[in-house]
Design goal:
Elements (H helix, E strand, L loop, with lengths): L1 H14 L24 E6 L9 H6 L1 H6 L7 E4 L7 H14 L6 E5 L8 H17 L4 E6 L3 H14 L2 E4 L10 H15 L2
Parallel strand pairs: 1-2, 1-3, 3-4, 4-5
Length: 195
């Protein structure tokens, strides 16, 4: 019986031995942040936001100017159409995004020049438009308000009710499509869209 104990003790001692030492000066790999998802920007609106036409005009349009200030991975989906109203955005531009499977992360909405109908109808349409963009997964919606107190008030009312951002753009005058105005609009919008 003594012999059996002598054999068990070395086996148990071997099972309890400590692992070999490791270098304490080993440097762990640097922590890396998860890559940010690319910005997918939907631009909705009328004449002021359209980027079709002669190449030089399209290149200096405010959406192109803003896009040049966003990360290189950002994508612009411009569904703006000439002579569009808020109702056009609701009935044509948002459905175009939905039909193409576009899931914008941010959106700018700028209507006003060709508006018709009552302010209450415009408010209802703009609210519905924002809600449809939210349903697509858009987390930041910027309601750009051109010159005029009524456009600013509408954008602020809808932004307060929906969580969108109202962005009045002052000092652009009546020619919002001119190069100076387009540069001013880009200066106002770019910081709001930048991550």
């Amino acid at each position: 019986m003594v012999l059996a104990v002598a054999v068990v003790v070395p086996v148990a001692a071997g099972a309890c031995s400590t692992p070999p030492p490791q270098a304490s000066n080993a440097v762990p790999p640097p922590a890396t942040a998860a890559p940010e998802a690319p910005i997918v920007w939907a631009a909705l609106g009328g004449d002021e936001t359209v980027t079709t036409g002669p190449a030089e005009e399209a290149a200096t349009a405010w959406p192109q100017r803003v896009l040049s200030r966003l990360p290189a991975t950002a994508q612009l989906v411009n569904v703006a159409t000439p002579d569009a109203s808020i109702r056009t955005g609701l009935t044509s531009q948002v459905p175009a995004l939905e039909a193409n499977g576009v899931r914008p992360t941010v959106a700018t909405v700028w209507f006003g020049r060709d508006e018709r109908g009552s302010t209450s109808q415009q408010r209802a349409d703009l609210t519905a438009l924002v809600e449809r963009l939210r349903a697509l997964g858009t987390t930041r919606i910027v309601l750009v308000a051109g010159p005029g107190p009524s456009a600013t008030a509408l954008a602020q009312d809808v932004a307060a009710a929906t969580g969108a951002v109202a962005l009045p753009v002052a000092g652009i005058g009546r020619d919002a499509m001119g190069p100076v105005a387009q540069a001013g609009i880009a200066e106002a919008v770019a910081p709001v869209l930048a991550p």
